[in-house]
Design goal:
This protein has about 230 residues and is an all-alpha fold. The chain is built from eleven helices and no strands. The longest helix is centred in the last third of the chain and has 31 residues. The chain is globular and about 70 Å long.
Length: about 230
Amino acid sequence: MRESLLTIPISEILDPKEGCPVCRMRDMLEQRTVEYIMGAAMMEPDVRIETNRAGFCAVHLSQMLGQKNRLSLALMLQTHLDEVHAGLFSRKKLFEAKDARKKKLSVINESCFVCEKIDWGMERLMRTFFEMYKDGNSRKLLAEQEFICLPHYDLLQSLAPKYLQKQELDGFVKLIGELTEKYLLTLYEDVSRYCSMYDYRNTGKDADWGNSKDSIERTVAFLTSRKL
């Protein structure tokens, strides 16, 4: 596949050899979306309609709180709260179904504007990623990755049959499985070492912790795709 505006982001994501490449893909989309929504887009009527409807999940609210412009977030929350109130507590319509408001509540609790944008972007990036894999462009880069985290190992396995033929699929599943298992075993060794360092026989100023001191944080990232 020739390099294009579609393939360049995938190449840039696969170029580093640290961490999970799918996490980097998600993080890139996440950062861009949060910066977009906290900027001038916040005042665009069509965007506000969507943020009022979808709201934000806890993860992305936390990231938005980390941005400098708290007023943008406050304005979006103000109109979102107004829409939530109107949808759940306004006077019932004549022909409104008995469980309509319960369904609305579930939708509100499960939706997020940023998640929806990331899902849209990930679908397109994944399509390009598998096209590049089929052409051989990204196989070597994928094989050189440090690991695939457990949630994205699941994601790649579920998407692969949609894009790859049988002969390609077997090799792909084997490759990502090896990346995931190798790192899992490394984490097990590091966490086990961390636990053993609390044995009185391993204490002292010369105690060798190896790579175990951040093993808990790395394990959480591997199991959840999120860093603490």
